[in-house]
Design brief:
InterPro entries: DFF-C, DNA_fragmentation_mid_dom. Pfam families: DFF-C (PF09033). The protein is mainly alpha-helical. It contains five helices and two strands, in the order ββααααα. The protein has a two-stranded antiparallel ribbon. The longest helix is centred in the last third of the chain and has 37 residues. The N and C termini lie far apart (82 Å).
Length: 139
C-alpha cells in the first residue's frame, strides 16, 4: 500500500507502508549538530563497495572525485595513494571523453542541419535528374 508521507522540509513523497520509519541518517558532530559529509566522502563511500558504479556517475560527481584530496580519497576508499590517484586520473579522462563526445555530436548535428538546408548539396534525386539530362544530351 502506498501512502503520502511528510518529509523533513515539508516535502511530500510516496512511500511504501513499512514497519520501520523512513529516516535520513547523518553523522552528528561533537557539539550535537548534524553535519553533512563532503561530496567526495559520499562518492568514495559509494565506490568502496563497488568500483563499477563510476560508470553511471554524473559529470559533477566525477569532477568531485577528480578534484578531491588524494590522501583523503585513499583513506575513504581504504586503498593506497597510487590507487586513489589512478582513480582520479581515470575520472578526469572519462570527463574529457564525455566532453569530446558531446562536441563531436554537436558538430555532427550542425553538419546535418547545414547539409539539409544547403542549396549546394546534391541529393540522390537531383543526381539522377542531372545524369538523365546528360544522357539525353548525347542523343
Amino acid at each position: 500500500m502506498l501512502l503520502w508521507g511528510d518529509c523533513e522540509k515539508g516535502e511530500k513523497k510516496i512511500q511504501a507502508n513499512r514497519l520501520e520509519p523512513v529516516s535520513r541518517d547523518e553523522p552528528d558532530s561533537a557539539d550535537g549538530t548534524t553535519k553533512k559529509l563532503p561530496s567526495s566522502h559520499k562518492m568514495a563511500a559509494l565506490l568502496k563497495g563497488n568500483i563499477s558504479r563510476i560508470i553511471s556517475m554524473s559529470d559533477e560527481d566525477l569532477q568531485v572525485l577528480a578534484d578531491a584530496d588524494t590522501t583523503e580519497l585513499a583513506q575513504d576508499l581504504g586503498e593506497s595513494m597510487v590507487y586513489a590517484q589512478s582513480l582520479q586520473e581515470a575520472c578526469q579522462r572519462h570527463l574529457d571523453d564525455r566532453v569530446q563526445t558531446r562536441k563531436a555530436i554537436d558538430l555532427l548535428r550542425l553538419y546535418s542541419k547545414a547539409h539539409s538546408i544547403s542549396p549546394y548539396v546534391e541529393t540522390e534525386s537531383s543526381k539522377k535528374r542531372c545524369h538523365s539530362r546528360d544522357i539525353s544530351s548525347y542523343s
